[in-house]
Specification:
By secondary structure, this protein is an alpha+beta fold. Helices cover 28% and strands 23% of the residues. A five-stranded antiparallel beta sheet has the order 1-2-10-5-8, with no helix packed on it. It is globular.
């Protein structure tokens, strides 16, 4: 969300500059712009270095609400084409089925156990001509990759958290939540998409039932670990 706000700010600034008189462009102060916006407007990498202090090259995870480093909260990433996330998936949890529209993700596990599922583009089919679903199990020290735009999710089937690092080849990788965003379409569009298998008030029930938590709970695992749903 924060990175999207930065993008909108930059677009607004660039639009204003484009419509300003030439003499105003050369005299315009950039003091009111964020550090990221100033870096994006710099002519080249040498100019970007002039805008960055030594301390700008250090980022501490845990200081922000979300465990991600993008050009929005770590301006030194501007122009590098990379971003990073470090976090953990709680025990007995599954991440939302999601995608990253602007970035390929390299997902590395440092502790725990993760079941990974990924559905690539439509043209990726198996030997029977059916859409491929790629399933792998990750243990500490293993890595998997999610190409940009691919649907994917991670499941932690164990009682303890699984710690991961995720690297992206974009400073603003963004996230698309498949279920939530699909059900933002009109009822008619959804009914037709699902072959009229759900319609009318059932569509609204599904909308309301889509969880809002960052991680979904895996019921079978909760029972195995002796946890209640609210504790996991």
């Amino acid at each position: 969300m924060h990175s999207q706000t930065i993008v909108c700010s930059v677009i607004a600034v660039m639009s204003a500059l484009a419509h300003a008189a030439p003499q105003q462009i050369t005299k315009r102060s950039t003091v009111e712009l964020s550090k990221t916006a100033q870096l994006k407007l710099a002519d080249n990498s040498a100019e970007r270095y002039k805008l960055l202090k030594d301390e700008d090259f250090l980022f501490k995870f845990g200081s922000d609400e979300l465990p991600i480093a993008t050009n929005g909260n770590f301006p030194a990433l501007t122009g590098t084409g990379v971003s990073l996330s470090i976090g953990d998936l709680p025990g007995c949890s599954m991440s939302f089925i999601h995608l990253h529209p602007r970035a390929t993700e390299i997902f590395s596990l440092s502790s725990g156990h993760i079941l990974s599922q990924m559905v690539p583009e439509v043209a990726a089919v198996d030997s029977e001509g059916k859409q491929r679903t790629i399933r792998v199990e990750l243990e500490p020290g293993t890595v998997t990759v999610y190409p940009a735009g691919s649907f994917h999710t991670q499941i932690n089937p164990n009682c303890e958290p699984a710690n991961f690092t995720a690297a992206f080849n974009s400073e603003e990788f963004a996230v698309g939540l498949v279920a939530k965003q699909t059900f933002l379409f009109s009822d008619d569009a959804i009914a037709r998409t699902f072959g009229q298998s759900i319609a009318g008030e059932d569509i609204e029930k599904v909308r309301d039932a889509i969880p809002t938590d960052m991680a979904l709970k895996v019921e079978q695992c909760l029972k195995k670990c002796g946890k209640e749903k609210r504790q996991a």
